[in-house]
Design brief:
446 residues; two-stranded antiparallel sheet; 6-stranded antiparallel beta barrel; Thrombin, subunit H; 12 helices; alpha+beta; 3 domains
Length: 446
């Protein structure tokens, strides 16, 4: 068997034995792609056998192919049919069904209900861009080229998320050689790792995995693609079993520009620093994971809205995020939005507040209540960008509690501001510091 990998976005198909109930197996076909995961099976049984009752839903089932083992979660029946084999003298019946699968794990080793789950990790080229070119990477390479010590630290960072969980970025080193090609070298790709201090169930892991993708999508400024997700699992003999997590993962980027600037990069211990963007405060990860479900959904709504194709839908969805985050009891939407924009007005072209805020609120009302309205595409895109910047700012300030001086330097990297008229925050002389100082003072008052 070739090297085992189960990569997100890749398409797979396996002939499997399905165990819907203990000791009762059926032949089936498991299909996996970035769009959907399905399992189809069929069976034959006696007409007077009442034991063959299949459910509309299953929380989890096990199945296996010739070389791999699978555990499927959250199955729902898509279609099913049954009938009689008319030419069979034994009065036999058949049953066929297809189920959708929400997510799954696959492994080279048998999976069991007694497996111990203690974490997961992901690899993504987008996260590589977020990390940047660091001295740690240089130290790893230098160690293997000319080692001057017995060990090398392979961790870029590590921090606590909660009392029972931590996040870290470790490099996985592999030495390779190709004798016929007279080649050899070392690879050291980084992986983001979530580790739990005690055993957890798979629902906790998948929820944290989905949310981790949202966190990095927010930091990078576009929805990220990950190549693979691996489960840290101890099997029957308490050995670590190589296990992959597979789920439907959108392979289209929200931003097509390959030169897209990372919104809030790690910026830690870089070999070369091209701008004055501050280092990402690692403790912000804990702020992200401390948010309740309602606040996490606001971040999710912003990210989802950015991928919407219809401009009016995108505008309304992002506006609602900014509206909820800027809400003050006893004040109307216009007053709240005016007050919120006042803190970041220096990031926008001159007279933006006076010229557009009331019109933006009116457009929101007209779309919400299906009133007649007229807006050209250029203006609509300007308003979408403006509410996106405001929603991003409010998430950073009110939910993540990021320092004002950091926000002042990071917010101008927002993709929507970069596409507008040059923001007034950029200067090359002392006026830059004066602008930043005023912006910091404004942010402190929110």
């Amino acid at each position: 068997m070739e090297k085992f990998e189960c990569l997100l976005g890749e398409t797979y198909q396996f002939d499997v034995e399905v165990a819907f109930t203990p000791n009762i197996f059926h032949l089936g076909t498991l299909k996996m792609s970035h769009k959907d995961i399905t399992i189809q099976f069929s069976c034959e049984y006696a007409r007077d056998n009442n034991e063959e009752n299949f459910h509309w839903k299953y929380e989890e089932i096990f199945c296996q192919s010739k070389d791999l083992y699978f555990k499927l979660f959250n199955l729902e029946m898509i279609n099913a049919d049954n009938g009689i084999f008319h030419n069979c003298s034994y009065n036999r019946m058949y049953y066929r069904a297809t189920y959708s699968v929400q997510y799954m794990i696959c492994s080279e080793s048998p999976l069991s209900v007694n497996d111990i789950l203690i974490g997961f990790s992901i690899y993504s080229k987008d996260i590589n861009r977020w990390i940047g070119d660091t001295r740690k990477q240089e130290a790893i390479l230098n160690y293997y080229v000319s080692p001057d010590s017995n060990t090398v630290d392979l961790s870029e960072f590590s921090t606590e998320l909660s009392s029972d969980c931590l996040i870290k970025c470790d490099y996985t080193t592999t030495i390779y050689h190709n004798s016929p090609g007279y080649m050899g070298g070392i690879s050291y790709p980084p992986r983001i790792i979530i580790s739990y201090l005690k055993q957890v169930n798979f629902k906790r892991i998948i929820n944290d995995l989905y949310y981790l993708l949202d966190v990095f999508s927010f930091l990078i400024g576009e929805n990220i693609l990950i190549r693979d997700a691996r489960l840290t699992l101890y099997g029957f003999h308490r050995n670590i079993v190589k296990t992959y997590i597979y789920f439907c993962h959108n392979q289209e980027k929200s931003i097509k520009n390959k030169k897209h600037v990372v919104f809030f990069p790690l910026g830690t211990d870089l070999r070369f620093r091209m701008d004055d963007v501050p280092e990402f405060p690692i403790e912000t990860f804990k702020s992200f994971f401390s948010l309740n479900d309602y606040k996490r959904r606001l971040i999710k709504q912003l990210l989802k809205a950015r991928t919407m194709a219809i401009g009016e839908d995108k505008y309304l969805s992002i506006f609602r995020v900014a509206e909820k985050l800027s809400f003050r009891k006893g004040h109307n939407v216009t007053e709240n939005m005016m007050r919120a924009y006042e803190y970041i007005k220096d990031f926008f072209p001159d007279n933006f507040l006076n010229d557009h805020i009331e019109k933006m609120v009116k457009l929101r009302n007209d779309i919400s209540h299906a009133n007649e309205y007229s807006v050209d595409e250029r203006t609509l895109q300007l308003y979408i960008g403006a509410v996106d910047v405001l929603a991003t700012f409010l998430i950073m300030k009110k939910l993540l509690i990021i320092n004002e001086q950091i926000i002042v330097k990071v917010l101008p990297r927002h993709r929507e501001l970069q596409s507008m008229v040059v923001p007034k925050i950029y200067y090359s002389d002392n006026r830059q510091k004066e602008k930043e100082s005023k912006s910091v003072d404004s942010l402190k008052n929110i």
